[in-house]
Structures are given as C-alpha cells and as structure tokens.
Design goal:
Structural class: alpha+beta
Strand content: 35-45%
Strand order of the largest sheet: 1-5-4-3-2
Distance between the termini: 40 Å
CATH topology: Nuclear Transport Factor 2, Chain: A
Largest sheet: 5 strands, mixed
Radius of gyration: 15 Å
Number of domains: 1
Shape: globular
Number of strands: 5
Order of helices and strands: HEHEEEEH
CATH class: Alpha Beta
C-alpha cells in the first residue's frame, strides 16, 4: 500500500473500527495482530506500566471482557515523509454489567509505520500518552486488570 495521506487515513479508520469491535473479547482481540509488526514496541507514558512492551503485551492489555473501550480519533496528523501518524483519541469506557459509562479521557498516540513483505502497512511503534485522571475518578487500569484476570483466570 502506498503511504499517502488518503490511504493512511482509510487504513486507520479500519484499524479503529476493528479495535472498537474486538477490544475486551479474548476471542476477538487476536484479530488485531494483523495491524502490528511482530517486533512492535509499545511505549505507554503512564505510571507503573512496563516500558517498552511488545505486541503480545499490547494485545494482552486489550483483553477485558465486560469492560467496553471505545477509541474515537478526534484529530489525525499524517507525516508521509517519516511514515508516522499522531492521533488525538477520545477514550470512553463502559462497564457492561452495570451500564456505568466512565468519564471520557483524551489520549494521544504517535504511530510509526512500516510496510511488510506484502506491501501492507504495519504499526512498528506506538508512543502512547494518557490524560491524567482526577482523584475521584475510578482507576481504569485497575478495572481493566480485574476484567482481564477474570477472563484469563490469572
């Protein structure tokens, strides 16, 4: 795929649509593998997380059945020369059991892309920056961990 503004925007539209369908569900999360290089580096700029993490680690964070996570891109800057994309994301969580919708957050991700041997785009590196939560808001990282542990039996 040629790395053009239009192609990359369409590719990311597909990526976020599939993320929103797959996240949480341990049976669907593996569908996201196709978007990432095998040697993906995921660097999360939030406290107390492994840095950098790999593809398996990132996919593992997506497993939290019962806790829906929606990523909605609000702004996207595409750098064709450096094959990089910066995205401002609105992140919304909803707990299925209670129907609780948690306060939306805005995060920023910088994606570095490569073409694989089949000329398909793959994300090679993600630098992920999160909005700080207020003290009275629930800790989504711990809530995600709870649901992941329930699903995986760990």
């Amino acid at each position: 795929m040629e790395f053009t503004h239009d192609n990359v925007r369409k590719w990311f539209t597909s990526y976020f649509a599939e993320f929103n369908l797959c996240n949480g569900d341990p049976k669907k999360v593996p569908n996201m593998e196709k978007y990432f290089s095998e040697d993906l580096q995921f660097i999360s700029y939030m406290l107390n997380v492994k840095r950098p993490d790999d593809r398996e680690g990132l996919l593992n964070t997506m497993v939290h059945p019962g806790l829906l996570e929606e990523l909605k891109p609000e702004d996207m800057i595409i750098d064709e020369k450096n094959k990089a994309v910066a995205v401002v994301l609105r992140v919304q969580f909803k707990e299925e059991l209670t129907g609780t919708v948690f306060p939306a957050k805005h995060n920023c991700a910088v994606y570095n892309l490569i073409e694989d041997g089949n000329s398909e785009l793959k994300i090679k590196r993600i630098s992920y920056f999160t909005e700080h939560r207020s003290p009275e808001e629930p800790d989504m990282k711990n809530l995600m961990k709870k649901y992941r542990e329930q699903a995986l039996g760990t």
